[in-house]
UniProtKB/TrEMBL annotation:
It comes from Rhipicephalus microplus. Residues 1-34, 279-331 are annotated as: Disordered. This is CCHC-type domain-containing protein. Residues 1-25, 318-331 have a biased composition (Polar residues).
Length: 469
């Protein structure tokens, strides 16, 4: 900031000698803000130990820009964010063409050494992951994106999960669908429960093998946790050893030891909380229930006017008694919601009871038909047995006896199954009736606690519904 003494007044007249001079500041013009637009992120996984304090991030950004052959205008829009602990670099740009050029990189030259890289496009911030199982084969990403169908949101990415027949799908938005079509077949889609990252090199929890900070130390055996020699075939495991629990009952990467199970639960809980937080952030906020219309204060006249002398002192502004307070409106709303939920549950229980009654009637008719057919068949078989009295027909008698026993056994089995079904239905009906009674009791108690105005309104609604029916 440049401070200068002005020799003239505000009206451009010279200041008299010996008078005060006004100090004015010549400010620099404010810098133009960078236009904010939607940025595209490109991630690059570097070898472990690459991001060290000896490598300035400015030089790394210049190396990546030179390897991608970006123009000076487009390179000015690229920003870099590094995570040294994970050897990760994120590049952000608003241009899709620049992002495509960055994704096409295969190698870099850092400190005179060429390194192989594989850039990738991370999932957008507002997205969620779902999993479908048993797709019947192993497919490429292009095949999955071509054959996957979902009609309410976009599918951003899809890939197979290792060598399994499960597919990991990235959906746009924060809602995971219940069903997804793959090759025109419906599959149940479930939320992805990520597992904690485990290192197969140092057997630690929290990072992968390509992010291991102990890349200069020999890898450890997955079973006995001892350092592996140069020739892995020459290593002989004595007994399993867990470096986390310090016991020899299981290995370090065993999925059943408590520490890993706790980490899995923490990862699943974190993913659920992240999804719900994004859903809550993206949904529009409901209108505030505390906004009420109050009476405006009366217009006041200037002091000493004729209207003031006639009317006297204006009354104080008072709130309308008809306007409900926020607490009363919230209680009324919650009461209505509970009442509606109880009525809906009562209707659902009634529907289930009616269906069970119909099933009981159908099973009773089937049982009666089966019993009558069994009785008629046994009568015919008895008649045939009485008519076969010749000694030469002993083989026929034996066959008929076997037929009678087989038929009797089959019908007995059917009768037992029908009886079991009837017993199960009766038990379910009894449970449903008990729940229905409890819901009815709760509904009656809620209706008794209704204010008089609410009781009149519900009585009027019930009378109108009965008249319509």
């Amino acid at each position: 900031m440049d401070f200068t003494a002005s020799q003239v007044n505000e009206d451009n007249t010279p200041s008299p000698e010996g008078s005060w001079n006004t100090i004015s500041a010549n400010r620099k013009p404010a810098s133009t803000a960078r236009p904010r637009s939607e940025l595209i992120t490109v991630g690059i996984q570097l070898p472990p130990g690459t991001l060290t304090p000896k490598l300035p991030l400015c030089d790394l950004l210049a190396t990546i820009i030179a390897a991608a052959n970006l123009s000076p205008k487009t390179s000015a829009e690229v920003t870099l964010q590094a995570k040294p602990a994970q050897s990760l670099v994120f590049l952000k740009t608003p241009s899709p063409i620049t992002a495509h050029l960055l994704l096409s990189l295969t190698s870099l030259e850092l400190n005179g050494k060429p390194i192989t890289i594989k850039p990738y496009a991370p999932s957008p911030p507002i997205s969620c992951l779902g999993v479908i199982h048993n797709v019947g084969g192993h497919f490429t990403t292009s095949q999955l994106l071509h054959d996957l169908e979902f009609f309410t949101s976009d599918i951003l990415a899809a890939r197979m999960m290792g060598s399994t027949e499960s597919v990991l799908i990235t959906f746009a938005g924060t809602i995971i669908p219940r069903f997804v079509y793959f090759k025109r077949v419906s599959f149940r889609c479930r939320p992805h429960k990520p597992k904690p990252p485990t290192c197969t090199r140092c057997l630690a929890i929290g990072h992968r093998a390509h992010q291991c900070p102990q890349h200069s130390v020999p890898a450890k055996c997955r079973r006995c946790a001892s350092p592996l020699p140069a020739d892995p075939d020459a290593h002989v495991c004595a007994q399993p050893w867990c470096i986390h629990c310090q016991v020899n009952t299981h290995s370090s990467l065993d999925s059943t030891f408590p520490c890993l199970l706790d980490k899995q639960r923490d990862c699943a809980k974190a993913a659920f909380l992240r999804r719900t937080a994004m859903r809550r952030a993206t949904q529009p906020s409901p209108p505030s229930s505390s906004a009420h219309e109050f009476l405006s204060p009366p217009a006041t006249s200037p002091p000493g006017s004729y209207a003031t002398k006639v009317k006297g002192t204006p009354p104080m502004c008072t709130f309308s008694s008809n306007t409900p307070s926020p607490s009363l409106s919230n209680e009324s709303r919650s009461f209505d919601l509970r009442l509606a939920m109880l009525e809906r549950n009562q209707r659902e229980q009634q529907r289930v009871s009616d269906e069970l009654q119909q099933k009981i009637l159908a099973l009773t008719q089937t049982l009666a038909t089966t019993t009558s057919s069994l009785t008629s068949q046994l009568t015919e078989l008895n008649k045939q047995l009485t008519t076969l009295t010749a000694p030469t027909s002993s083989c026929h008698v034996t066959k008929l006896v076997d037929m009678v026993e087989t038929t009797t056994t089959a019908h007995h089995t059917r009768l037992v199954k029908l009886e079991n079904s009837i017993v199960w239905i009766l038990t379910t009906l009894e449970t449903q009736s008990q729940q229905l009674e409890s819901f009815t009791y709760m509904l009656n108690s809620l209706q008794e606690s209704l204010p008089p105005a609410k009781k009149k309104e519900h009585a009027r609604v019930g009378a109108s519904s009965t008249s319509k029916t």
